[in-house]
Amino acid sequence: MSTARAELITLLTDRSLQTGTFTLASARTSSYYIDARRTTMSARGLDLVGRLGLTAIREAGWDAQLVGGLTLGADPVAYAVALTSRNAPPPIDAFTIRKAPKDHGAARLIEGCFTPGARVVVVEDVLTTGASALQAAEVLAREGARVLGVLAVVDRNEGGRDAVAQAGYELRALVAAEELGVRHDAAT
Questions:
Q1: CA gap 161, 149 in Å, rounded
Q2: Residues 121-159 pLDDT 10s
Q3: By the 8 A CB rule, do 53 and 39 touch?
Q4: Which CATH number is 121's domain given?
Q5: How far from 46 is each of 79, 118, 128, CA to CA, in Å?
Q6: Residue 187 lies in a domain
Q7: pTM for this structure?
Q8: Which are the contacts of 104, defined by CB distance < 8 A and separation ≥ 6?
Q9: Most buried one in 28, 93, 121, 144, CB count within 10 A?
Q10: Environment class of 107 (CB within 10 Å of its CB; exposed 0-12, middle 13-18, buried 19+)
Q11: Model confidence over 48-99: pLDDT tens digits?
Q12: Domain count, the chain
C-alpha cells in the first residue's frame, strides 16, 4: 500500500493543494487550501481512496457495515470505500447526511443504505477542527447508529484529531497535510 499512498500524496499535491489566503469552513484563515474533491472525485483518486480507506478501516479493527458523512466532501470517499469493499468482502455500504432534511418524499436527513443500529465509520475529505465529522457522528448516534471511528483523507493537524478523541472516537487519516509540502498554519 505504500506505493498507493505515495501516489495519493502526489495526486493531492498536484490536483488539490492551493496556496494563497483562504478562509476555511472553520472560519480560520490559512495560507493553503486543500480542495480534496479535485482528487477524490477523479477516477484515479477514487481508486486510491477506496483501497487505502478500506485498508485503514480494517487495520483499525472497525467492523463497519456502513461508511458516510456530511455531504459533499464525504460522499466520494464513502462511495469509493463501498465499491472497493465489493471485491474485498465483507462489503461495506454507503450513506450520506444531508445538510437539512428534504421537505418532500420521505423527508430523510440520512440517505442511502443507512439503518438504525448499524455499525458505521464517519468519513471526511479534509479534517481541520473535526466539527463536520463530529456533527455527522452526532446525527448518526441520534438516529441509532453505533459510530466506530472517523476516517479522513487528509488531516490538517489543526485540532481535529484531539476534538474527535475528546468525543470518544479514534481517527485514522490517510495523509497528513505536512506530507503535501505545507507548513502548519497558526490558528487565526
A1: 11
A2: 999 999 999 999 999 999 999 999 999 999 999 999 999
A3: no
A4: 3.40.50.2020
A5: 8, 24, 21
A6: no
A7: 0.94
A8: none
A9: 121
A10: exposed
A11: 999 999 999 999 999 999 999 999 999 999 999 999 999 999 999 999 999 8
A12: 1
